Amino acid sequence: MKMRIAVFSDSINIPPKEGVNVHTYDLLRTLAARSDCTPILVVCDRGWLEHDVLRTQTFDTILLPEKFFYDVNYIAKLVITHGFDIVQSYMTYFGSAVLGPAAYQANIPCVAELHDLEESVVSVYFSHDELADATRQHVAFQKQAAKYASVVRIMSEYDYSIIKETWNDFNTQRYVCIPVSRPTVKTDHHISPSLITYIGNMSYTPNAQGAEIIKNKI
Which helix (DSSP H) or strand (DSSP E) does residue 160 occupy? Predict the structure, then answer.
C-alpha cells in the first residue's frame, strides 16, 4: 500500500514563477515520481491561487480556507479522514501551533522542515524595537516545531551546523535520502544533491518510531 504524505503550505509557487516555496513544489514532484507513496498538497487558499495550474500537477491538492487551515481540531480530523500516514510543513509557527498538535492527536509522524535558523534573519522582517522579542519567538517556534516532529528536514549544512552547536537538547542523525532541493535555488548551492540531513528529538515519544518509518519509506 502506498504511503500517503500530506505536505502543508500557506502558499505555493509553481515554476517558472520564482518564490520561497519552490522547494515545496520540488518535494511534491519528487514524491509523486516514486511508486511507494502518494503526496497530497494541503494549501491555505486566500483567493489568489491558480486552481487551473494546480489541477495539472502530478500530485493531488486539498484547498482550505484560512479559518480551517489554522484550526488544530479541524486539521486533526482532516488527517484522520483522509488517511494520511505522514504530515509535513516548512512553516515554523504552523508546525509548532497547529500541525504538530494535530499530528499528535491523530497519532501519526510529523515532519518539520527548517531553514534560516540564524537569528539574524529575524531582522529582515522586524524593526529594531521589535527585534529582541521577535528573535525569541522565532527560536521558540522552531524548537517547538522540532519537538513535535518525528524528524526535521534541514535545508542546508549551515543550518545543520547551528543545530549541532546550539540545540544541545536534541539528538542528531544523518540519513541519505531522496534529493528534494534544486541546484538552481540560490541558498541550496552548497547541498549535495543526494544528501538530505535530518535531526530527530528522540526523547519525544513516538519520534524514534516515526523517524524509523520515514527513514525506511522515503
Answer: helix 157-166
